[in-house]
Amino acid sequence: MTSAKVNTMSSFPLFPDQASVGAQRVDAVYFGLLAISAFFALLIFVLLIYFALKYRAGRNVDRVIRRTDYLKLEMTWIIIPLLISFAIFGWAAKVYFDLRTPPEDALEIYVVGKQWMWKVQHPNGVRENNELHVPIGRTVKLTMTSQDVIHSFFIPAFRIKQDVLPGRYTSQWFKATKVGEYHLFCAEYCGVAHSAMVTTVEALPAAEFQAWLESGATVDPIEQGATLAQQHGCLGCHSVDGSPRVGPTFKGLAGSPRQVLQSGKELTVTADTDYLLRSLREPAAEIVAGYPPIMPVYAGLPDEEVTALITWLETLR
Hints:
Layout: E1 6-7, H1 21-54, H2 71-100, E2 107-114, E3 117-121, E4 127-129, E5 131-135, E6 139-146, E7 151-155, E8 160-164, E9 170-175, E10 180-186, E11 198-204, H3 206-215, H4 221-231, E12 257-262, E13 265-270, H5 273-281, E14 287-288, H6 303-314
Parallel strand pairs: 1-10, 2-6, 5-11
Antiparallel strand pairs: 2-3, 3-4, 6-9, 7-8, 7-10, 10-11, 12-13, 12-14
C-alpha cells in the first residue's frame, strides 16, 4: 500500500511545510528573532504612547530638567541587549555549523546542475533527471557540481539552499521527516530558461524508497569507477594496495591529510571531494610532496565519470 503523500507542489505558501529536521531548527531561530523583535518594538511603542500622553500640552506635570547620574540605567540598556545579541549569535551559529556538517553515515547522492535541469545519481547507479527521490528518517548528503554556470539548489520545505559551482564540488545535507512531494528550485539566475528549472523532490518511506531504488538499478558507480581508472591508465601510476609506484597510492587516499606543494609552499590539505576533483582537473595546482609533477589533466572527463571515479576512490579508505 502506498503511503499518503503531502503535496506542496500546487501553491507557494508564505511558510512552507517543515519537512526536515533542519527546517524545524531554522524556523525556531527565525521565530525566536521575530518574537524578540516584536517584544522590543511593542515595548518601545507602549512607552512612546505613555510618555506622549503623560507629557502632552496642557498637562500639569513636572517638566524640570535635572542633571542626574543615570549610570545604572545606561548600563542596563547596554548589557541586556548585548547579552541577548550574544545568545542569538551562539544559537544561530550552532544551528549553522550543525547544518553544514553532515553525519558520517549519510546517504550520499550526486547532483549535477546544467542549463536547465538537475541530473541526479544514487549510490547504486540509478539516475534521474528533474526528480529527486529520498527516504524519510535518514540523513541524505548531496554532493553537487555544475556543468556550465552557477546554479543554486533550493528546497524551501527543507530550508536548504546551496550554490552549485562549475569546476568544484559543494555539499548540503538534510533529513526528510514527512512523506510528500516538494518543490526544488534553482535560486540563481542561470539563463533564459531559469524560471523553468523547477523540479520535484519526492520523500518516501524507507521501504518504498529501497524498492524504488532496486527497481531502477543500473550500473554500479563503484564498478564503473574501477573500470574507468583502468581505462584511463590511472593504475599505471597509482596502486590500490599501498605498494609504491610513480604516483601516491590510492589506498587510504580519500579523507586523509596530504602534504602538497602549492605555489612553492608546502601545505597540509585534506583529500576530500574537492581535493580529488582538483587532482583530476588541475593536477599541477597541488603536487603531492615527494612525487614528480607528471599527472595528466583530465579536464574533459564528463561529470558522470568524475563522480564514478570519486565514488570508487571513497571505497579505498
